[in-house]
Design goal:
With about 130 residues, this protein is of the alpha+beta class. It has 4 helices and 4 strands, in the order αββββααα.
Length: about 130
């Protein structure tokens, strides 16, 4: 568990976010991916989330599940508003946020913790933020 020291919380959030972004930056076969993108389909304002592959075709990273009494699943889909947001917050953004948090840790030693960096860190660590 992360302590209550704000600098430690920011540092731990940067490490966690970097680990999550690293894990999410490959497809199911282990190939590296680049940016994520969302493609709408059908008539229901929904679509699929993909990870671009810098060396080949992109891979769908949204998977559907089975439902119903016979295990027949619905086609995987995602509401457009959710898919577009997820695509905008892909692993490249995670790496950039982790770097910003690293910078905030350095600054915290000299000027104190940035309250915005601390709020982001606590959300990443799923901790209660001060109101």
């Amino acid at each position: 568990m992360t302590g209550t020291n704000p600098t430690d919380q920011i540092r731990a959030a940067a490490e966690l976010l970097r680990a999550l972004a690293t894990a999410a930056s490959t497809d199911e076969t282990g190939r590296p991916t680049a940016r994520w993108y969302f493609t709408e389909h059908g008539r229901h304002d929904s679509g699929y989330l993909y990870a671009a592959n810098p060396t080949g075709p992109g891979a769908r990273i949204l998977r559907g599940g089975s439902s119903g009494p016979h295990g027949r699943g619905l086609r995987p889909h995602l509401a457009a508003r959710h898919g577009e947001y997820i695509a905008a917050m892909d692993p490249t953004v995670g790496f950039a946020l982790a770097a910003w948090l690293d910078s905030a840790v350095e600054d915290a030693g000299q000027v104190g913790p940035d309250p915005h960096a601390l709020a982001v860190a606590r959300q990443i660590l799923d901790q209660e933020t001060e109101r």
